[in-house]
Amino acid sequence: MPHSSGGGFHGGGFHTGGGFHSGGHSGHNLNIVTHRISKTHYAGAHAYIFYHHHFPHVVYSSESPLEKDLTKSWIHTIILFLVCLIPFGIIFGTGLHFPKKLNTNYDTRIIIEDDAGYLTDDQETLLKNTFLTFYDKTGITPSFAAPGGFTMMFWPSSLEDYAYADYLTKFKDEKHWLIVYRGGENYHFECIQGNDTDHILNLKVRQDFYKYLNDHLEDGEHIYTALTGAFDFIMPTVMNPCFCPESDAIAPAVLIGLVAIPALGFAIYQLVASYRFKDAVKYPDGSILKHCPYCSNPYYTKTVKKCPKCGAILEDDTPQVKPKTKEKDSIQEDEYAIDPKQFEIDKDNF
Fold first, then answer.
1. Are 273 and 283 in contact (CB under 8 A)?
2. 8 Å CB contact between 150 and 114
3. From the DSSP assignment, how many helices (H) and strands (E) are in the chain?
């Protein structure tokens, strides 16, 4: 369907309309967190021991943080990384323009309806020649309408709505560029373009055209002079390749990025955590904290057979002192409970 191309009015500057259109979309939630892993005990959780930088660390989880979580974390990370590419795809997909002249297999009659009488006969002829030059270069057929008389008596509240209805009345294709103008001290113009013209009448072209047209009308130039000047201004470069993302494309791209990028960051955190926890073991019955007889590095018995630091073979036959815990903080009903403060995870290492 044709759509607003842009416009302008006295004292209000110009606008470029919207050149990017897409349908609705549905959202899906990604379950990133496989299960809860905590540094403090919670109901239904068991203690797990893992080693980082040679030292034992204690975490609590309701499920075993094994290597299967590493696979899940990789899947989540890859999916979210691909989602994060969507905003860049939208911006580059709508921003890269390689204009190609439109096929002229449609009604290419140039229509100039000056019911308000702004143009002389000579100006109308010269304006038509300017339109024809633009058509020969792009395949787009420009047209001009300046309603007056009876139409002005029933002027709609929105000139853009009028221009849109006028386009549908006059043209049965998507290859025209209609410029509707209302003159006077408080001039106003609105333009409608067919969808097939979007790769040529991109954001940069529209900005250049409407800024020129509006600035010169604001300076008091006649509509004929300002309009022909605007076409002459854009024609040398209108078919040049360019990168100019549509403003309507940037908003959804930013929205997706604001959601996906933080989620990707959390997925990467989960991935790192999964690497940390993949070798974690459930706290064994009777395990106590001991120190390597060769390097004094701490370790929990029944969790490793070699010293995490020096690699010496460990003998767990001779029990040493159990880790000190405050009696009031002990959880008697949890057979796996150990002192969670003995070796807390250092947040700076995550």
1. no
2. no
3. 7, 14
Percentage of the chain modeled with pLDDT above 70: 67
Q: State the Cα–Cα distance between residues 299 and 312, nearest whole angstrom.
A: 12
Other C-beta atoms closer than 10 Å to the C-beta of 240 total: 11
CB atoms within 10 A of CB 94: 24
Cα–Cα distance, 261 to 149 (Å, whole number): 57
Strand partners, 6: 191
Pinpoint the alpha helices (H) of 172-246. Answer: 203-218, 223-234
Q: Give the pair of three-digit tokens for residue 279.
A: 């070798």
CA distances to 94, 96, 252 from 320, rounded to whole Å, are 69, 70, 62
- Supply 179's token pair: 């410029």
Place of tokens 């975490």: 59
Query: How far apart (Å, rounded) are the C-alpha atoms in residues 100 and 325?
Result: 77
End-to-end Cα, the chain, rounded Å: 53
**pLDDT tens digits for 147-199?**
976 555 565 568 888 999 999 999 999 999 999 999 888 899 999 999 999 88
Q: What share of the chain is helix, strand, coil (3-state, %, to 5)?
A: 35, 15, 45
Both tokens of residue 36? 């809860």
As to burial, measured by CB atoms within 10 angstroms (0-12 exposed, 13-18 middle, 19+ buried), residue 342 is middle
User: Structure tokens of 105?
Assistant: 């297999």
